[in-house]
Design brief:
Chain lengths: 104, 93
């Protein structure tokens, strides 16, 4: 067990924990906009930590480049998609959840 | 280690599909499908490292591209839905 393997394992477990947290939150939050927040956790923290943990395990150079391409692409497109989605829902008149409302 | 990450990703994908099936309205389903696509990209990357085949990362890149384009296209169609129903539906719809 070298230092890099331990660090990679820590990053992978943290990413898996973030992904699980977001997945549970997408079921338990009461509203569409709060569910967007949970999905954003899985997209940013989960994907970033898992891909960084895999990046410490690579042997070849081009594999590291592909992982970096995936990381950059997810970091660019995931907030864009989330923003477009929230904007479309807000424009379509999806109501916001206030405290005391029933779960939707 | 990698097995734990794959198990967490599989459980999250199952929860996301559950939200897709029972989520009220259209936008919850689009959000769940988008999240499912991101999780598929991560799953393909982790599976490539588990099987010792890093060529799977190319499939992951392509899937991320297709997922983003599909989400934007579907949202564009939902935005035009009311326009289409207004022009074709006539009165009383």
């Amino acid at each position: 067990m070298s230092v890099l393997e331990v660090l990679s394992g820590v990053l992978l477990v943290a990413g898996a924990l973030a992904v699980l947290t977001g997945g549970v939150g997408m079921l338990r939050f009461p509203d569409f906009y709060t569910r967007i927040h949970a999905a954003g956790i899985t997209d940013s923290a989960g994907a970033g930590l898992i891909l960084l943990g895999l990046l410490l395990r690579v042997d070849a150079w081009d594999t590291a480049v592909r992982l970096l391409i995936i990381l950059l692409f997810l970091a660019l497109t995931s907030p864009t998609a989330t923003h477009i989605l929230a904007h479309a829902a807000r424009r379509d008149g999806v109501p916001m959840w206030r405290e005391g409302d029933p779960r939707r | 280690m990698i097995f734990a990450v794959m198990a967490a990703l599989l459980v999250t994908m199952v929860l996301t599909l559950l939200r897709t099936f029972l989520g009220p309205g259209l936008y919850n389903r689009i959000l769940a499908i988008n999240t499912f696509g991101t999780k598929t990209v991560l799953f393909v990357a982790v599976a490539g490292f588990l099987f010792g085949r890093p060529e799977f990362l190319d499939i992951g890149i392509l899937y991320a591209l297709v997922n983003f384009v599909a989400t934007v296209a579907v949202l564009r169609l939902t935005h035009y839905q009311e326009l289409v129903s207004d022009t074709e539906g006539g009165e009383g719809r």
